[in-house]
Amino acid sequence: xxxxxxxxxxxxxxxxxxxxxxxxxxxxxxxxxALPAIGSEFSMDAISLSWVVSAYLLASAVFLLPIGRVxxxxxxxxxxxxxxxxxxxxSFLLAVATSSAxxxxxxxxxGLGSAMIFGTGVAILTSAFPARERxxxxxxxxxxxxxxxxxxxxxxxxxxxxxxxxxxFWVNVPLGLIVxxxxxxxxxxxxxxxxxxxxxxxxxVIYGISLISFMYGLSIxxxxxxVWFLAIGVLCLLAFIWWEMKxxxxxxxxxxxxxxxxxxxxNIAALINYSATFAVAFLLSLYLQYTxxxxxxxxGIILIAQPIVMAIxxxxxxxxxxKIQPRIIASVGMALTAAGLLYFSFIDADTTIxxxxxxxxxVGLGLALFSSPNTNAIMSSVENKYYGVSSAILSTMRMVxxxxxMGIVTVMFAVFIGRVEITPEYYAAFLDSMKVTFVIFxxxxxxxxxxxxxxxxxxxx
Length: 461
What we know:
Layout: H1 3-42, H2 46-74, H3 76-95, H4 100-128, H5 131-163, H6 166-186, H7 201-219, H8 226-246, H9 255-258, H10 261-277, H11 279-291, H12 296-303, H13 305-320, H14 326-344, H15 353-379, H16 387-416, H17 427-454
Helix pairs in contact: 1-2, 1-4, 1-5, 1-6, 1-11, 1-12, 2-3, 2-4, 2-7, 2-16, 3-4, 3-6, 4-16, 5-12, 5-13, 5-15, 7-8, 10-14, 10-15, 10-16, 10-17, 11-12, 11-17, 13-15, 14-15, 14-17, 16-17
């Protein structure tokens, strides 16, 4: 392949990766705005409403690691295409759902499609771009994620106000079809550096049981039965590690973690960061609509401040990480995020919109400086045959972090509000639960600064 053909191929791959990376966060951030409307139609309490988000995240987290390994063996493009198809089909089914239980179930199935997208897109991008260009490409890709997050609340608010919450799912159907067409028409070739190796089905099952038990246990805290689920989760995790150590073809090569400190600590930093930040949009969406009495559309316009900053700064941060050690930039980002989260713990029912937007800008800047360099550090620290699994592990950290974030929120709701619908008499309790949650998130990010700094220098592959 000559230089022009190679450049064209890389550009096509980047476009497809950007489109797929846009789709799922766009859906997720749109749903956050529509949650009060969904809850109102089906009379869902606060904890049940959080499961509209958590069911999707849990399914994604369970399948990400096995899907990453399957993609390395059988082809990343095949899995990416199948993931977009599944995501699009369940977007259609969600648009016609008739009960809260069905919505939660379909969101879980939609999470399977997301796992296929998350577990392959970054891996394909990393395979296509050499180390000297990787930070820029990953920065652009991360920016597309944040563009989806930016447009989601804005367009989601308009759609919910004008056409009802179901229109959010309808919009994703043609978007999904466009991406499917692009993959079939433009994305040539295949990436399967582990072709011919075996898939560890037993390890995948043990891993799935461990994650489901642990995450479900977190979600039902402080209920005493949570202890049993958490214990089962930990025991299954130990069984999974034992099995993977003796497996000839594990879904998770433990050497990636035990012998690669950059990879291990970068993923831990990602887990901490997502645990502390994912529920910010969820909480502020409820705060703006319940406590401040805003419409979904107005709340959506305000919430785009954070992802707009992230979309602008992420490519710059990614490019910078090609020249400066990623841990330095990422650690500064983690510190800014911690400051922004602590700032949010002081808001009350009378806080002005300008104050809210300022906090969103600070958190957005911190996340942008963290995400692209951290992703670059992870993907540049492993051999190309592990790109699929490495991408899946990073995505798993994101999904588990997101679930932990929602789990913390659920626990705070249970402690301060209880299992009731959020009505005016509970607004003060909701505000208290939100403030305590932001303090917890800020402390997590403060600890994450040291994890990020401890990873050491990156040796480019």
